Amino acid sequence: MTTEKGSISIHTENIFPIIKKFLYSDNEIFLRELVSNAVDAVQKIKRLGSLGQFNGEVGEPLVEVSLDAAAKTITISDNGLGMTAEEIKKYINQVAFSGASEFVEKFKDAKDANEIIGKFGLGFYSAFMVSDLVEIQTLSYQDGAEPAKWTCDGSTSFEISEGSRTTRGTSIILHVNAESEEFLSEGKLQEILDKYAKFLPVPIKFGTKTTQEEDGVDEEEKPKYKSVEVDNIVNTTNPIWTKAPADLSDADYLDFYKQLYPFGEDPLFWIHLNVDYPFNLTGVLYFPKVKDDFDMQRNKIKLYSRQVFITDEVKDIVPEFLMLLHGVIDSPDIPLNVSRSFLQADSNVKKINSYITKKVADKLAELFNKDRKAYEEKWSNIGLFVKYGMISEEKFYDKGKDFALLTNTKGENFTFEEYKEKVAPVQTDKNGTVVYLYTTDTEKQDGFIQSAEKKGYDVLVMNTPIDSHFVSSLEQKLEKTQLKRVDASVANQLIEKDEVLESVLSEEQSTSVKAIFEKAIAKPNFSVEVVGLSPDDSPVTVTMDEFMRRMKDMAKMGGGMSFYGNMPDSYKVAINGNHKLVSKILASADETEQSKFAKQAVDLALLSQGMLTGAELTAFVSRSVELI
């Protein structure tokens, strides 16, 4: 073969600086690109053999990565298709040309031609991100082919000459540049291979490793072991998402989860995705035990394309609320830019997004209908996830309303329909609106809960981080239904009825009582009113307006409510005109004593809400001792 020199066919002299600096978001992906190209070449020769297009010995498929730190080289070798000098010129030198289209055309009648499409072209050029010089040694599978060598120093000049390879396949030798010497480390290369190549369909060898092998038995008939060096194969070539669900056991799914998340708790359950029309998609999604701090749970779904890891930033493919799930999605139909690193939103992505939402909803409905008791036991872990989905996805809400649960303070669970039937007879107000009462903290709001339950009301528990948004969403979705936090008002006023308990005080007495309490409180953000309650109810109740409190809760969670979050807190102070303490205050002629009892009653109400702190709490304790 004569040596040939030339220039790479490109549109601009500046292509290499662009490739090196801007085309790839992370320079470690050079190894992913070159290893996946090698895997493609190995799969192609195997396919050609099965199609009768290659009659030679295919052999055991293998891609090998090797490091020579002293020589500052990394080599990626395969026993795949190989290339002729002409093919190098066609596939390597013409940057914008992909050999895939010609290959598919040639074998378009093959049943699964998509499997054998290679990614020639730009992927290979990621090699120059870390190299001063790149060398290709290759020998084509074609009869009579001669070995060829290609070298390029990162300029647009190349040289093709006779190669030294004696077996079919290709070796890419990278002469690593000074800025990229971090990659001349076994640990670093192993880390990258673990990340990107863990589930590639062809064995990837990276050096050797020491393992223990049985070596007979000792005098006590116990097995003996010896250390042996074996090939370090970094990948599992047939991960579970490539298999049929019928061929897998629960243990298989749990073992795979442990592979992905070695330190994670076992998942609650999982969904096996498998669709080939109108797009190709496989994968397994796991429902983890979702913690309250659900922001920390995200980016746990890994995206693959033909078993090559792409990214764990899957927000374009997976609906926002499903980001809480863990697992793997693999699709050759997901469009990627030239670096395979960023997703582009197109119709396929939108279809995949909808499909995954539907599959998740169907799985939850199936679990609920099949074994409601088991589903209810999981609800504390999946409730946050389901509520998030119902808030953010209309289609998910439509399905979710049949399997979402509302839990009351007694630990009983109800579907939306069941709960409405339960409380409507007692908790419908004078305008025909059903009022759902809820607590965000059963401990702090216990007094209010007990007062509501004495009236025959039921109280729901809404204590997850997302419940402030979920409550507002339910009000919009459920017909003629309102939700109120149980401490939004005194029990008598939570649900407006036609019958009203009147205060025994005259108008003049009510005015006097109001003035005494306003003076004792002396705070502009506390508004006082005298109301008629049962003599057994508390003498004073302090509440925050339901609307304002809810807006503040939502502001804490984010969601465009920061305006309310910055507003000062305002409270309502309800004085029970029928309580004996009020009569006692009115009966006293001593203004100091009136103020003392009024202040004590208000502080007691604040204490029950956990709102009495600092100097005011100290003063309350001193006053209590004095009054004993």
UniProtKB/TrEMBL annotation:
Molecular function in Gene Ontology: ATP binding; ATP hydrolysis activity; ATP-dependent protein folding chaperone; unfolded protein binding
Keyword check for Chaperone: yes
Keyword field: ATP-binding, Chaperone, Cytoplasm, Nucleotide-binding, Stress response
InterPro entries on file: HATPase_C_sf, HSP90_C, Hsp90_fam, Hsp90_N, Ribosomal_Su5_D2-typ_SF
Binding residue positions for ATP: E33, N37, D78, M83, S98, G99, T170, R340
Highest taxon in the source lineage: Bacteria
Similarity remark: Belongs to the heat shock protein 90 family.
Name this polypeptide is given: Chaperone protein HtpG
Source organism: Pedobacter cryotolerans
Taxonomic lineage: Bacteria, Pseudomonadati, Bacteroidota, Sphingobacteriia, Sphingobacteriales
